[in-house]
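SAMPLE LOG
Freezer: B-3
Tube label: C17
Construct: single chain, 329 aa
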Amino acid sequence: MKAAFIRETGPATNIVYDELPTPEPAAGQVLVRMGAVSVNPIDTYIRAGGIKMQIPLPFVIGCDLAGTVERIGPTCSRFKVGDRVWGSNQGLFGRQGSFAEFAAVDEQWLYPTPAGVSDENAAAVALVGITAHLGLHRAALKPGETLFVNGGTGGVGSTVVQMAKAMGARVATVGGSDEKVRLCPKLGADAAWNYKTEDVDAKLKEFAPSGVNVWWETLRDANFDRSVGHLAMRGRMVLMAGRDARPQFPVGPFYTKDLTLIGFAMFNAAPDEQRAAAEDINRWLVEGKLKPRIDRVLPLSEAAAAHQLQQDNTLDKKGTLAGKIVLKP
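STRUCTURE (predicted):
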């Protein structure tokens, strides 16, 4: 089979697109024929060696996938040959990744793809959708509450905007261009501002004069003085980025407002937690309340270029990406 893989960690140029043996599904696994995969920031960290995980070599990169069950391994019971499935969690903790024509996947990390949902959309929503769902539920977002997403057009941010709206919240967010700001109401945002040209702090205070109930931070370097100042009494802040960040923290203003800080990594969640998220994701996809934001679709042979583009936007903040990069074998 064709696959995108590395023989050692390092820059995106280390990614090779070549032949590898097709894997055999072990007990509890199914062999999935890939229809689409997508790129996440964590994929670039693992490929670069920034996250110290045990990886087999050669190592097929990639977490997200969508495709069709080709073969069933021993003891599998949830899926049959021909079922369309999607999932994430590949390429982690010693598991081979998804950037190949086939992948042997533990069935506990797979979910049925609803009729009418394309493989491209299913792959694009996988990790970002489960991440958004886990964070919103851990923040205990309630209907009628106000949520601010600090970056609402990226992969996770655009998903948080849509899910929060589906859960009945009032949602405000920001984008780095007028074009991105115009996209936000289409995602469900009640208010959106250009953080490069507008006074977002003043606008946010007008939007939520009593404060924000949930602040979702997508930036690697959070400004806690700012977010704590905007949070309402007993507000919650969700952190999902900034592995190496060490920002200052306003302890006094934080604890005197009874605030809660929530940090989490999607891949730490148990299979049953992620399956519960997938069930809501599937329902919202069918209802049209969740539409993955795809920036571009590329052939799998361009995996190295896709990784470089993701890295440029995640680490170097080039702003040339608005949504997910999807690749097709």
